[in-house]
Amino acid sequence: NFILTQPQSVSESLGKTVTISCARSTGVIARNYVQWYQQRPGSAPTTIIFQDDRRPSGVPDRFSGSLDTSSNSASLTISGLKTDDEADYFCQTYDDNNLWVFGGGTKLAVL
Amino acid sequence: QVQLVQSGNETKKPGASVKVSCKASGYIFTNFAVTWVRQVSGQGLEWMGWISPYNGDTKYPEKFQDRVTVTADTSTNTAYLELRSLRPDDTAMYFCAKSWIAVPLVDKWGPGSQVTVSS
Which of A17, A26, B36, B95 has its CA 20 to 30 A from that of B48? Predict the structure, then answer.
Protein backbone atom coordinates (compact mmCIF):
# COMPACT_ATOMS: atom_id res chain seq x y z
CA ASN A 1 0.00 0.00 0.00
CA PHE A 2 1.04 3.64 -0.20
CA ILE A 3 2.12 6.00 2.57
CA LEU A 4 1.45 9.67 3.27
CA THR A 5 4.51 11.70 4.28
CA GLN A 6 4.21 14.90 6.28
CA PRO A 7 6.96 17.10 7.72
CA GLN A 8 7.44 16.31 11.42
CA SER A 9 7.23 19.94 12.39
CA VAL A 10 6.75 23.41 10.97
CA SER A 11 6.88 26.81 12.60
CA GLU A 12 5.77 30.26 11.58
CA SER A 13 5.15 33.62 13.18
CA LEU A 14 1.89 34.95 14.52
CA GLY A 15 -0.24 36.44 11.75
CA LYS A 16 1.70 34.80 8.94
CA THR A 17 0.72 31.98 6.59
CA VAL A 18 1.97 28.40 6.80
CA THR A 19 1.51 25.43 4.50
CA ILE A 20 1.74 21.79 5.57
CA SER A 21 2.31 19.18 2.89
CA CYS A 22 1.15 15.57 2.65
CA ALA A 23 2.88 13.58 -0.10
CA ARG A 24 1.43 10.34 -1.44
CA SER A 25 4.11 7.76 -2.19
CA THR A 26 2.38 5.87 -5.00
CA GLY A 27 -0.85 6.39 -6.87
CA VAL A 28 -2.36 9.69 -7.88
CA ILE A 29 -3.17 12.06 -5.02
CA ALA A 30 -6.36 13.20 -6.74
CA ARG A 31 -7.71 9.67 -7.01
CA ASN A 32 -9.08 9.58 -3.44
CA TYR A 33 -10.26 12.45 -1.29
CA VAL A 34 -7.90 13.88 1.31
CA GLN A 35 -8.97 15.03 4.75
CA TRP A 36 -7.13 17.09 7.39
CA TYR A 37 -7.58 16.77 11.14
CA GLN A 38 -6.39 19.12 13.84
CA GLN A 39 -5.46 17.82 17.28
CA ARG A 40 -4.71 20.24 20.05
CA PRO A 41 -2.69 18.95 23.02
CA GLY A 42 -4.72 16.70 25.28
CA SER A 43 -7.77 16.72 23.01
CA ALA A 44 -9.40 14.49 20.45
CA PRO A 45 -8.86 15.35 16.79
CA THR A 46 -11.33 17.54 14.92
CA THR A 47 -12.01 17.64 11.20
CA ILE A 48 -10.93 20.87 9.54
CA ILE A 49 -10.86 19.91 5.85
CA PHE A 50 -12.69 17.11 4.04
CA GLN A 51 -12.90 16.04 0.41
CA ASP A 52 -9.66 17.88 -0.43
CA ASP A 53 -10.84 21.45 0.08
CA ARG A 54 -14.18 21.59 1.89
CA ARG A 55 -14.51 23.09 5.36
CA PRO A 56 -17.02 21.84 7.95
CA SER A 57 -19.29 24.54 9.30
CA GLY A 58 -17.57 26.43 12.06
CA VAL A 59 -14.05 26.07 10.65
CA PRO A 60 -12.74 29.52 9.73
CA ASP A 61 -11.79 30.27 6.15
CA ARG A 62 -8.22 30.84 7.33
CA PHE A 63 -7.91 27.09 6.81
CA SER A 64 -7.81 25.83 3.24
CA GLY A 65 -6.94 22.57 1.52
CA SER A 66 -5.61 21.94 -1.95
CA LEU A 67 -3.95 19.33 -4.15
CA ASP A 68 -0.71 19.70 -6.11
CA THR A 69 -0.58 17.10 -8.85
CA SER A 70 2.99 18.07 -9.81
CA SER A 71 4.28 16.94 -6.42
CA ASN A 72 1.52 14.36 -5.89
CA SER A 73 0.67 15.92 -2.58
CA ALA A 74 -2.08 17.61 -0.64
CA SER A 75 -1.57 20.82 1.28
CA LEU A 76 -3.16 22.50 4.25
CA THR A 77 -2.69 26.26 4.36
CA ILE A 78 -3.40 28.30 7.46
CA SER A 79 -3.37 32.06 7.07
CA GLY A 80 -3.40 34.75 9.76
CA LEU A 81 -1.82 32.36 12.26
CA LYS A 82 -3.11 32.52 15.82
CA THR A 83 -1.57 30.97 18.93
CA ASP A 84 -4.67 28.78 19.08
CA ASP A 85 -3.54 27.10 15.83
CA GLU A 86 -0.65 25.40 17.65
CA ALA A 87 -1.56 21.76 17.26
CA ASP A 88 -0.76 18.53 15.44
CA TYR A 89 -2.20 18.21 11.95
CA PHE A 90 -2.86 14.89 10.26
CA CYS A 91 -3.78 14.19 6.65
CA GLN A 92 -5.81 11.12 5.74
CA THR A 93 -6.94 9.37 2.59
CA TYR A 94 -7.84 5.83 1.56
CA ASP A 95 -7.06 3.25 -1.08
CA ASP A 96 -9.28 1.71 -3.73
CA ASN A 97 -10.58 -0.82 -1.20
CA ASN A 98 -11.55 2.00 1.17
CA LEU A 99 -8.79 1.09 3.61
CA TRP A 100 -7.73 4.18 5.51
CA VAL A 101 -4.26 5.76 5.48
CA PHE A 102 -3.08 8.50 7.84
CA GLY A 103 -0.05 10.71 7.47
CA GLY A 104 2.40 10.72 10.35
CA GLY A 105 1.32 14.16 11.53
CA THR A 106 2.91 17.61 11.64
CA LYS A 107 3.44 19.65 14.79
CA LEU A 108 2.78 23.34 14.15
CA ALA A 109 4.52 25.90 16.34
CA VAL A 110 3.31 29.49 16.20
CA LEU A 111 6.17 31.81 17.14
CA GLN B 1 -26.29 17.83 18.10
CA VAL B 2 -24.10 14.85 17.31
CA GLN B 3 -22.60 13.22 20.39
CA LEU B 4 -20.31 10.22 20.77
CA VAL B 5 -19.94 8.97 24.33
CA GLN B 6 -17.18 6.44 24.88
CA SER B 7 -16.69 4.01 27.73
CA GLY B 8 -14.25 4.70 30.53
CA ASN B 9 -10.56 4.03 30.83
CA GLU B 10 -9.46 0.41 31.17
CA THR B 11 -6.41 -1.37 32.55
CA LYS B 12 -5.80 -4.91 31.33
CA LYS B 13 -3.14 -7.57 31.68
CA PRO B 14 -1.18 -8.85 28.66
CA GLY B 15 -3.08 -11.57 26.84
CA ALA B 16 -6.50 -10.29 27.92
CA SER B 17 -9.17 -8.67 25.75
CA VAL B 18 -10.80 -5.25 25.96
CA LYS B 19 -14.10 -4.02 24.56
CA VAL B 20 -14.58 -0.27 24.14
CA SER B 21 -18.03 1.17 23.48
CA CYS B 22 -19.18 4.28 21.67
CA LYS B 23 -22.79 5.43 22.09
CA ALA B 24 -24.00 7.74 19.33
CA SER B 25 -26.82 10.27 19.45
CA GLY B 26 -28.05 13.25 17.48
CA TYR B 27 -28.09 11.57 14.08
CA ILE B 28 -29.49 8.52 12.32
CA PHE B 29 -27.06 5.81 13.39
CA THR B 30 -27.59 3.58 10.37
CA ASN B 31 -26.98 6.39 7.87
CA PHE B 32 -23.31 6.69 8.80
CA ALA B 33 -20.36 4.46 9.59
CA VAL B 34 -18.27 4.26 12.74
CA THR B 35 -14.50 4.20 12.52
CA TRP B 36 -12.00 3.33 15.24
CA VAL B 37 -8.61 5.01 15.44
CA ARG B 38 -5.96 4.68 18.13
CA GLN B 39 -3.10 6.88 19.21
CA VAL B 40 -0.13 5.88 21.32
CA SER B 41 0.93 8.77 23.51
CA GLY B 42 3.03 11.22 21.53
CA GLN B 43 2.55 9.38 18.26
CA GLY B 44 0.29 9.49 15.22
CA LEU B 45 -3.19 8.23 14.38
CA GLU B 46 -3.63 4.56 13.47
CA TRP B 47 -6.76 3.24 11.78
CA MET B 48 -8.13 0.08 13.40
CA GLY B 49 -11.42 -0.65 11.69
CA TRP B 50 -14.72 0.57 10.26
CA ILE B 51 -18.31 -0.61 10.37
CA SER B 52 -21.50 0.32 8.61
CA PRO B 53 -24.25 -0.20 11.20
CA TYR B 54 -26.78 -0.31 8.34
CA ASN B 55 -25.67 -3.73 7.09
CA GLY B 56 -22.82 -4.74 9.41
CA ASP B 57 -20.14 -4.43 6.71
CA THR B 58 -16.69 -4.11 8.25
CA LYS B 59 -13.20 -3.23 7.09
CA TYR B 60 -9.91 -3.74 8.89
CA PRO B 61 -6.26 -3.04 8.14
CA GLU B 62 -4.23 -6.20 7.63
CA LYS B 63 -2.29 -5.47 10.82
CA PHE B 64 -5.40 -5.95 12.99
CA GLN B 65 -7.38 -8.52 10.98
CA ASP B 66 -6.78 -11.29 13.52
CA ARG B 67 -7.12 -9.33 16.75
CA VAL B 68 -9.85 -6.72 16.21
CA THR B 69 -13.61 -7.02 15.87
CA VAL B 70 -15.87 -4.02 15.35
CA THR B 71 -19.60 -4.43 15.94
CA ALA B 72 -22.65 -2.20 16.16
CA ASP B 73 -25.94 -2.54 18.02
CA THR B 74 -28.63 -0.60 16.18
CA SER B 75 -31.11 -1.05 19.05
CA THR B 76 -28.91 1.09 21.32
CA ASN B 77 -26.99 3.09 18.69
CA THR B 78 -23.75 1.81 20.14
CA ALA B 79 -20.60 0.65 18.36
CA TYR B 80 -17.97 -1.56 19.92
CA LEU B 81 -14.28 -2.24 19.38
CA GLU B 82 -12.88 -5.49 20.74
CA LEU B 83 -9.12 -5.98 20.81
CA ARG B 84 -7.80 -9.40 21.81
CA SER B 85 -4.45 -10.82 22.92
CA LEU B 86 -3.45 -7.47 24.37
CA ARG B 87 0.22 -6.48 24.51
CA PRO B 88 1.90 -3.59 26.33
CA ASP B 89 2.31 -1.78 23.01
CA ASP B 90 -1.50 -1.69 22.69
CA THR B 91 -1.47 0.94 25.44
CA ALA B 92 -3.08 3.89 23.70
CA MET B 93 -6.04 6.23 23.45
CA TYR B 94 -8.82 4.69 21.38
CA PHE B 95 -11.14 7.03 19.47
CA CYS B 96 -14.42 6.22 17.81
CA ALA B 97 -15.57 8.53 15.05
CA LYS B 98 -18.70 9.16 13.02
CA SER B 99 -17.75 8.54 9.43
CA TRP B 100 -19.30 8.55 6.02
CA ILE B 101 -20.26 5.29 4.39
CA ALA B 102 -19.45 6.19 0.79
CA VAL B 103 -16.27 8.15 1.49
CA PRO B 104 -13.80 7.12 4.20
CA LEU B 105 -13.66 10.27 6.27
CA VAL B 106 -14.50 11.41 9.78
CA ASP B 107 -16.90 14.24 10.46
CA LYS B 108 -17.12 13.88 14.25
CA TRP B 109 -14.63 12.38 16.69
CA GLY B 110 -15.36 10.82 20.06
CA PRO B 111 -13.42 11.94 23.15
CA GLY B 112 -11.33 8.79 23.40
CA SER B 113 -10.94 5.92 25.87
CA GLN B 114 -7.56 5.16 27.41
CA VAL B 115 -6.56 1.50 27.42
CA THR B 116 -3.50 0.55 29.44
CA VAL B 117 -1.93 -2.89 29.16
CA SER B 118 0.35 -3.74 32.03
CA SER B 119 1.22 -6.77 34.11
Answer: A26
